[in-house]
Amino acid sequence: KSADGFSMVELMIVITLGLMITAVIGSIFISGNKNYNQDDRYARMQENGRFAMNLVAQDLSMGGFWGYLTENTSSVAILSADNCGVVLNLTSPVGLVNSPTATAANSAHSCISSSTFVAGTDVLTVKRVKGSPVTSLSTSKAYLIVDGTAGNLSSGISTYDSTKNYWLYQPHIYYIANKTISSGTTVPTLYRKYLVATSGSFDYEELIEGIENIQIQFGIDSDATADGVPNYFTSSPSSSELAKAYVARISILARTLTPDPDTSYQNTSTYDLGEGAIDPFNDRYQRVVFTSTIALRNLNYTARR
Fold this sequence. Notes:
Layout: H1 8-61, E1 94-97, H2 102-108, E2 123-126, E3 142-147, E4 150-155, E5 165-168, E6 172-182, E7 185-196, E8 201-209, E9 211-220, E10 232-234, H3 239-242, E11 245-255, E12 271-272, E13 277-278, E14 287-295, H4 297-304
Antiparallel strand pairs: 1-2, 2-6, 3-4, 3-5, 6-7, 7-8, 9-10, 9-11, 11-14, 12-13
C-alpha cells in the first residue's frame, strides 16, 4: 500500500495560501501600527495645545489681581530695578511685545536669548499675586503685604505678622524659543520667565513642546462711558488702550513633535491666528490652531481705581 501525502501541486498551493494569509495579517498589523502612531502624534499635539491655552488664558485672566488691596496701586513702591524689562510694580499688570524679531525681543526683555527666540511670535507679560494669602514666608520670594487697605511690595521677608495679609507676587513672561533636542534638530517650545526675588532677576522654566506661535489681541472699549463691550481689537495696544481692555483673544498654533513618516506628505495649509493668514510651511508637520477669548476683569478694574 502506497503512503499518503501531499503532491507537489498541493504543497505549492498550501504554501501560497499561507504566504497570502501572512501578507494580509502583516498588512493589517502595519496599517494598525501606522494609524496608532498617527493618532498618538495628533493626540499629543492636541493635548499640548490645550494645555498651553489653559495655562496662558488662566494667568492672563488673573492679570492685575492684587488680593485685598483697595488703595491706588500707583502708591505701592517698585520692588527692584533689575527686572528683564519688567517694572516690578502694580500699575502695569499686562504687557505685550507684538510679533518682534529676535533682536527686538531681546531688546525688550534682555533675559530672552535672541539666538533661540522664534521671531514673529508674541511676548506676553502678566503680573499678579497668587490665589490666596500665604501664612508661611520664604526669604527667596516676593510678597504684596496688605495692611487694611494699604499695600507694600517686598522681598526677603522672614517674620510673619498675623495682622497682615501676605500675597505671593508672581510676574511671568511668556515666549516661544527653539529647544534643541538632538544635533541639528529643534522643537518650538513655550517658555515662561519667573521672578527670582532674591536678586530681582528672572529665571526660566520650560512649559510645553510643540507650541509654534502665539498671538494675542486685546478688545478695547473706547466709549466715553465704558460699557464693557469692545469696540475694536488690537495686537499692539498702548498703555492707555490696555487700561480700557476688557477681553483678550489668544491664538496658539501647535504642531506635532515629529514629522509625518510619509515622505510624500507636505503641509500646504495656511493658518489664521487673528492677524492674517500664515503662509504654508511646506513641511511634514501637522498643525492645529487653538483660539480662546477671555475676560480681563482685574485689568480694567486696576486701571479704574
